Amino acid sequence: MASSNGVVLDVQQLRMRYDDTDVLHDVTFQAERGEVLVMLGPNGAGKTTTIEILEGFRRRSAGRVDVLGTDPEHGDEQWRARIGVVLQSWRDHAKWRVRELLQHLGSFYVPYSTQHTQRPWDTDDLIALVGLTEQADAKIATLSGGQRRRLDVAIGIVGRPDLLFMDEPTAGFDPAARRDFHDLVHRLADLEETTVLLTTHDLDEAEKLADRILILAGGRIIADGSPDELARSIAGEAQVSWTVDGQRFVHTTTESTKYVHELFKQHGEAIADLEVRLASLEDTYMTLVRRAESGEDTAAVHTLAEVTR
Q1: Taking every annotated instance into account, which residue ranges of this chain make up the domain ABC transporter (predicted)?
Q2: Is residue 87 in a domain?
Q3: pTM for the full predicted model
């Protein structure tokens, strides 16, 4: 079981080395029960390696890793039954029908039910949850790309996991399917108290889903905090826009509150359509990654990761 304080993931000074190359450098973070943690970073940052170590599929070089109270390198079947994984693609069983496959996979979880968690998920409830009711009796080979991705998600959660890993889960989703998926993640976290760790390159998605965001660059965590915390951590410029007598104005400033105060002193009620745009998650992400990759302000970046945790 997770520790009494609700910590589900506890990663301390995780290191990974291939031959003479370090790909993870003292990665440290925690995640609590019911928390949605989104991991961002450029290609090659170490996201996939980190997740594979947490899933127990890859041995680390150094550091301490505790997942649901167990070192993943020594996790048994009882431990693995509490973990769900949504891969980037699942290409087997094309001749199976949706309901048949989910019933078959779910049967493996029956011995791992507990007093608190009934495993597996009811098949029809699960199919409805991921939006495949109309395709329940269809062969998997006939599903569209978006429907196939929904099935990938269903396969990942069929055992009602306490901890769910998802790698680019909405690749191939149309906007409606993406919105449904976001609702599903919030339901899992809020109602089922499932801890979710996912990777994505979609910063808008990260902002909608994340309780906390981890940003990796060069094998290091360079930021750890909520989207708002990360945006506030960047001392940057804000864009102030407004209209006076129908004419539109835009001004960039590092002191938006003071500037708006001066605007109202000068123009008063003549000001309309006032908008102050602060740094977005995309602005923050690009700034932090650029700093990390250039070696600029490295100490300040590391301090941010510590302060916002």
Answers
A1: 9-243
A2: no
A3: 0.81
